# Entry
Amino acid sequence: MSSYLHAFGAYLPERVVPNAELAERLGKTSEWIESVSGIQERRWASPENSVADMGLAAAEDCLKKAGVSANTLGLLIVASGSGARGFPGPAAEVADRLCLDSVPAIDLPMASAGSLFGLALAMRLTEVQGDVLVVAAEKMSALIENDPNTAILFGDGAGAALVSARSGRWRMLDAVLHTEGKYRADLAFEGTGPLRMNGLTVILQAARKIPSSIQEVLERQKLSAQQVSAFLLHQANLNLLTRVAKSLGVGPEKVFSNVQRYGNTSSASMLIAASEWSQTNTETRGPIVFSAFGAGFHWGALVAHSED
Amino acid sequence: MAGGCTAISDNARIAGSLLWHASLLWHASLLWDDVHMPDLSRHQRLRKLVEEVAGKPAPEDDQESLFESGLLDSFALPDLVSAIEKEFALKVPDADLNPRKFDSIARMDAYLADHMK
# Structure
């Protein structure tokens, strides 16, 4: 039985934080921030705006675009690496505010790759659960302090995707997921204190593992990277996206990017990218590939194909 | 004459002994170089790769950290590893993708010495 991607949704806080604002605080220049990350600005949520608030807004946007109401959902998955560390996680609050009654809601406390893992789980659960709404929401601004290497990168936002067994815009073909827990200390936030990132290890592993997982899932489906219409990846850093394109042997225009405007919104970024891309590429046909890499390390890729 | 011959013979023996010792030292030094000195060709190729990726001259000191010195940034590291794989026709497995192994020319040279045997 197949699963289909019906629609994406997104929410981004109104407050725009340009490089100049951070540069002054961190003792760097706007140009330096852009050169090392490709980021020009990011969005930060207001203090009263929670992970669940943003997740709910993205969920509602997605349901609206899909033309369905929340009462059709059979499962809610909410990914967040920056959500509340205690219990219950944000999934229960988002479910309650969507007026879901007795519908299971699962938290995926995963940064960066959380939305990819959520999509892959949803793809395999629609047969049993019916429509699955995957939400990823992050308030990364609450985690960063004054370390220039991390403070420049992150932004806040949320994304969502509706996955269903009913025929939809893209048929989900396959997904590969991986975890190597030995790297768990290289990118971590332990609830208090600053986010910790061993940039050299993260970049070195990501630059290898993202293309290799994409190749893995494409080879399983007997597809080549050149046949793919668009790569919708976790928006970690523009320099990384460029290198992934190079490794895959495709032009950088095939790798959608909006990290310049939103920064790295961790698990939300891939779905925010998918939401923007799908709105401006309504006529694009062929395979599309999702891929993410992040804290854990968790990483993987998923391929879908347009219907019609 | 005999004494002279003897003297010549002694000199010859001394010279022969000196030559033998010199030869021993020369062979020992070759062995020492073989064990302790880097493969000059490999070493030069590595320096060239670092300079190509960095777009700047490599440091004089092979032990100097290429990242702490600012010669390479984190995004140059994957490029450098790819360049090494291509140049030396080997695959660096994911498990070996530890920045410490590629932190300096000396460490890269040691890695290659271990993995090109």
In short: Chain A has a mean pLDDT of 95.
